[in-house]
Write a structure and sequence with these properties.
mainly alpha
């Protein structure tokens, strides 16, 4: 899991950025939620409801809208290469990681994350050595160190722990809907942090993503109050996972 979810996914993702376009990277990531949904059905016999499927399709459509910048003709000019294959392989690894979280040991998430980090470190060392030997490594600047700290404590630690807890509470197929928000939220951050232009398709895509995730979570109880999914039975049994 440490190799699949941390090292393998990240290494293939970064490799793909050298070989393919940003549009292809964004679009091909839409393959991950269906992979998780199929895996949950095949290996865990998890029910695939119409609401969940509709929510996933709506969220994926929003991701496509962001990737194409509102111009669907871009889809007709897409070319596929080794970088695209790398992205698909990365999505397969992360889908497997997401599904495996469902069966993780009943220990606190931070302890489990520490174990995964050790295996990720071991599997990343050969790649780092190869990168240095090939001449692609360089010492970061002051700005680079700040970026490194953010990546380490933000996406790598905080986001991974939150994702583990989310899968624990709502299951892998429902949790896999949320990465569909990444392109829309990324575009929003680019506007707020980098001063980039905000276009109508950004707002539409964000609305589609949020609506899709909500449909996948709420299902037929759209207008009922959403209760916190706290499992008292597990607490009473002394299960301290998470």
């Amino acid at each position: 899991m440490g190799f699949a979810g941390f090292t393998g996914f990240s290494a293939l993702f970064y490799l793909a950025a050298y070989k393919t376009t940003a549009v292809n990277i964004t679009l091909l990531q839409t393959s991950m939620p269906p992979m998780v949904l199929l895996g949950a059905f095949l290996f865990y016999k998890e029910e695939v409801t119409g609401w969940r499927l509709a929510g996933m399709l709506l969220a994926l459509a929003g991701m496509v809208l962001i990737a194409t910048r509102g111009d669907m003709q871009i889809l007709a000019t897409m070319n596929f290469n080794i970088g695209d294959i790398a992205i698909i392989a990365a999505c397969i690894l992360y889908a497997g990681y997401t599904l495996s979280l469902r069966s993780r040991p009943a220990i606190p998430a931070l302890q489990f994350f520490f174990g995964l980090s050790l295996s990720a470190l071991a599997s990343a060392l050969p790649l780092a050595i190869g990168e240095i030997a090939a001449g692609y490594a360089y010492w970061p600047s002051v700005t680079g160190w700040w970026v490194l700290l953010f990546v380490a404590f933000g996406p790598t630690l905080t986001a991974q722990l939150a994702y583990m807890r989310g899968v624990d509470l709502i299951g892998p197929s429902r949790a896999s809907l949320f990465p569909c928000l990444v392109p829309a939220l990324g575009a929003l951050c680019a506007v707020l942090m980098l001063g980039e232009s905000f276009h109508l398709y950004h707002g539409i895509a964000l609305g589609m993503g949020l609506t899709g995730v909500y449909l996948g979570q709420a299902g037929p109880g759209l207008f009922r109050p959403i209760r916190w999914p706290f499992n008292m039975t597990r607490l009473e049994k002394g299960n301290n996972r998470g």
